[in-house]
Amino acid sequence: MTIRESLEQMEKETLSPFASLSSETRGREKSEPQCDIRTDYQRDRDRILHCKAFRRLKSKTQVFLDPQGDHYRTRLTHTLEVSQNARTIGKALRMNEELIEAISLGHDLGHTPFGHAGERTLNRLCDEGFKHNEQSLRIVEKLEKNGQGLNLTWETRDGIVKHQIETIPATFEGRIVRISDKIAYINHDIDDAIRAKVLSEDDIPKDIKDELGYSTNDRLNTIIHDVIIHSQNSDEVKMSDGVSTAVKDLREFMFERVYLDPIAKAEEVKANRLIEFLFEYYMDNFELLPAKFKRFHEEDGDSKQRVVCDYIAGMTDEFAVNVFNDYFLPKSWQIF
Questions:
Q1: For a Cys staple, 175 with which of 24, 237, 262, 306, CB 3.0–4.6 Å?
Q2: Secondary structure letter of residue 50 according to DSSP
Q3: Rounded to an integer, what distance in angstroms lies between the CA atom of residue 37 and that of residue 319?
Q4: Are 75 and 115 in contact (CB under 8 A)?
Q5: In the chain, domain spans
Q6: Which pLDDT band, with edges at 50, 70 and 90, does 258 fall under?
Q7: From CA 300, how far away is CA 249, in angstroms rounded?
Q8: Measured at the alpha carbon of residue 126, what is the angle toward residues 124 and 131, in degrees to the nearest 5?
Q9: Strand partners, 153
Q10: What is the four-CA torsion angle of 108, 114, 116, 120, rounded to 10 degrees?
Q11: 88-98 in b/e burial notation, b at 16+ Cβ within 10 A?
Q12: 37-259: which CATH number, 1.10.3210.10, 3.40.30.10, 3.40.50.740, 3.30.750.24?
């Protein structure tokens, strides 16, 4: 018996009846030999961790564009916090932690530079639309490894594309990541907003704090405990009514005071225009795209708009600004 087979047997003996077993995966789109020491979900996690799109997350906006400070979240640190929350919940519920981690690490690979501002702009400009969860799937299925993709299992890909609130993943592990994403961004965005002096702890409504706690750590602890307690011995991932209502109210408060706040989002207009300029420029000068992207149009039949979105969405914040400077500012005016 190989090490992988021993690990698969251990899963069968120890995981919840609702867990996804590595030995029962629906498999990969392209068949390949199995590893002798790692399960299929471990391999998924490792492939995501080592891919270029994952490394670029360190230089992509979470909420605050170009914050002046070292301690604001980036898309990478958000991803790691989602993974940590999801693994805590998954371990307590005896779910497959390797699948949880793979989905967590891959769920935001498709995010654009400048966070949701960039996503909204590309969605408006592209006739086919643009959603970061669908782009994350496109990255792992096609764009990585020069068009080969990562060839992940069906369960990991399902969890990645369905991590949004309006969709429901097929696996329990995917549903844990979905709720952990919401838990993470609500809580760490409050922390960043307080750091940026956009709001203070006293601004958070008292009824929400009475239910969830009077600090970011307390609220995170309350929500995660509540999810674990109310999801035990169940085929659903859920919160109690009181905590669920408070989380919903807290999310609405954050949209009003942070996500749509003119101070917090002051630079978004500039970011939107930058994305617009780059999109229009590459549509008019498609030949300037790297060869591998042009190949997606010329050989695979992807539309020019989709390929331009692929290229722009893959940029980090800094790279997008530098490209804009190269194309649109006279050299003597550039500050970089």
A1: 237
A2: T
A3: 38
A4: yes
A5: 37-259, 268-333
A6: confident
A7: 45
A8: 75
A9: 28
A10: -120
A11: bbbeebebbbb
A12: 1.10.3210.10
* H helix and E strand count, the chain: 17, 0
Mean pLDDT on 61-68: 64
Any residues with CB less than 8 A from the CB of 51 and at least 6 apart, and which? Answer: 109, 139, 140, 144, 145, 150
Structure tokens at 89: 């919940």
Residue with tokens 């399960």: 39
Whole-structure pTM value? 0.95
How confident is the model at residue 8, as a pLDDT? 98
> Given this model, what pLDDT does residue 55 score?
97
The token pair that represents 19 in the structure block: 């867990």
End-to-end Cα, the chain, rounded Å? 58
Tokens of 332: 């003597």
Amino acid at 62: Q
* Closest C-alpha to 157, from 179, 174, 176: 174
pLDDT digits (tens, 9 = 90+) for 160-176: 999 987 789 999 999 99
Q: What is the distance, to the nearest Å, from the Cα of residue 323 to the centroid of all Cα atoms in its chain?
A: 24
